[in-house]
Amino acid sequence: MELKGKTALITGGARGIGKAIALTLAKAGANVVISDLGSSSDFKVGYKLSTKDDLKTVAEEISALGRKAMAVEGDVTKTAEVQAIVDKVKTELGPIDILVNNAGLVTIGALLKMTEETYDAVMAVNVKGIFLCCKAVVPQMIERKGGRIINISSVAGKKGSAGMTVYCASKFAVIGFTQALAMELARHNITVNAICPGILPTAMWSDYLSHALAHLVNVPASEATEKFAQQQIPLGRTQSPEDIAQAALYLCQADNVTGVSLSVAGGMELS
């Protein structure tokens, strides 16, 4: 699919993977809408969430590339807010051609220490959020006889890890959802694929997960991610948001690829 003049909606687009995908698609010619919480949230996580200023900054960068940009605040776990975002985009930029479901939460902890509240929050964002966004956008794609949906899963959606039961369960669910929806929408010329990132130096890793890795590689948290990459990733480095964005661009452009869960992890699954 040619991206010039197309409209893309990217959830969790204020920074990290979402930001990189937004800028990459804009460079390829798409007009881009980024959504994120943007302000205070009820979610309790061990790392800093994005801000309203983060959203504004990304929108400005997209505009500087000569594309139409829109930044909207919204919670993907709430039906009314998701529908409001989709309606606003259609009114101001036109129908959505590309949906990238990137919003996500991660948590680490042994099962017996995990709370029901944490389980519900992770599942709400990582799984229900994708369901709600797809349900709101797909009718437009069916009407236009085509579209692209990309769901951000994880290598944790292909292989379970101790201490990550809830997160792994949510990302396995994303892959199953992706495959089923790909079958359902193929007759409408809508492709549905997932990307499975490995380890990235985003706020989620820097502020939270690096501490969990530290005991595995027996080094301080500040060194854990790099050490883990050297030991467990054949290509010897962590992934960057731009690595994931390259995969997203490919899946947007590809006309005959659907139902795929594409790992971008430097071969980590092979270790």
From TrEMBL:
One of its GO terms (molecular function) is oxidoreductase activity, acting on the CH-OH group of donors, NAD or NADP as acceptor. SUPFAM superfamilies: NAD(P)-binding Rossmann-fold domains. It holds the Pfam family adh_short. Residues 6-208 form the Ketoreductase domain. InterPro entries: KR_dom (IPR057326), NAD(P)-bd_dom_sf (IPR036291), Sc_DH/Rdtase_CS (IPR020904), SDR_fam (IPR002347). Coiled coil: none annotated. It comes from the Bacteria. GO terms for biological process: fatty acid biosynthetic process. Belongs to the short-chain dehydrogenases/reductases (SDR) family. PANTHER family: 3-OXOACYL-(ACYL-CARRIER-PROTEIN) REDUCTASE, SHORT-CHAIN DEHYDROGENASES/REDUCTASES FAMILY MEMBER. This is 3-oxoacyl-ACP reductase FabG. The lineage of its organism: Bacteria, Pseudomonadati, Nitrospinota/Tectimicrobiota group, Candidatus Tectimicrobiota.
